[in-house]
From TrEMBL:
Enzyme type, top EC level: hydrolase
Record organism: Shouchella xiaoxiensis
Top-level lineage group: Bacteria
Protein name: inosine/xanthosine triphosphatase
Residues of the Non-canonical purine NTP phosphatase/PRRC1 domain: 2-148
Record bears the keyword ATP-binding: no
Keywords, sorted A to Z: Hydrolase, Magnesium, Manganese, Metal-binding, Nucleotide metabolism, Nucleotide-binding
Lineage: Bacteria, Bacillati, Bacillota, Bacilli, Bacillales
Signal peptide location: none
Gene3D superfamilies documented for this protein: 3.90.950.10
Cofactor: Mg(2+); Mn(2+)
Stored InterPro entries: ITPase-like_fam, NTPase/PRRC1, YjjX_NTPase
Enzyme Commission code(s) on record: 3.6.1.73
Reaction catalyzed: ITP + H2O = IDP + phosphate + H(+); XTP + H2O = XDP + phosphate + H(+)
Amino acid sequence: MGSKNPAKVHAVQEVLIKEPFEVHSVDVPSLVSAQPFSDEETVTGAINRAKQALASADAAFSIGLEGGVYRQNGHLYLCNWGALVTPEQAIYTAGGLRMQLPTYMVEKLEQGYELSAALAANASQQEGAVGVLTNGRISRKEMFTHIVRACYGQYLVH
């Protein structure tokens, strides 16, 4: 998997825990902006992470996860994407939870800050924007787990 981020790694581990795979994480760049500002850029980042992780290991597949934001109808929304890539270059993608960002976050993002810097001072890497925006009712790991399930499910049926 193409990240060392604990929430992302734990999401992949949770989905694959009963499967015949070992999860190895590597720190690879997304090759997109530090703060992706569209669905296209965010999914591209996820695909890039999965491809780079796969290139660094002999694996049945690799998973990349990426968070970003996108603008719709004058509002800025949180978005999250995942990609599963096989050695044959089959690519399975899935998107996750979307929610409107509050004004204070939008202002920071428009000033050039990354989403992590626009969060409340007490937000942890585990909690992330989704944890802050849902008052802890949805964790970052839980959000990414749904995406990993969707990517892995597609892989299994193809």
